[in-house]
Amino acid sequence: MSPDEIKLFCTILRKVQILRAERTALMTIVKHSVHAKEVPVHWKSDLEAIRRTPDYRAIAEEFGATISQLEAKADDSLLLRLLEQLGGDKLPN
Fold first, then answer.
1. pTM of the entire structure?
2. Mean pLDDT computed over 48-71
């Protein structure tokens, strides 16, 4: 991959990490509403509150340091290592 392609890929990976955190936050709200048997009226404010938690940030920033290294070096071997770390459920199908 060219350095420009790697930088674009890093941008996409950062967005994927944020989407993972959003999915987790929304699933928390949905599970709570199923348990309570009612639709949460203030789900948007609940989502905003979840976004400020350390757990949310941990998911969103889980690979931030590695992605930053990859951007700085544009190194294919570092890219392969990052993809290995992201295996399993960390990337969309």
1. 0.76
2. 91
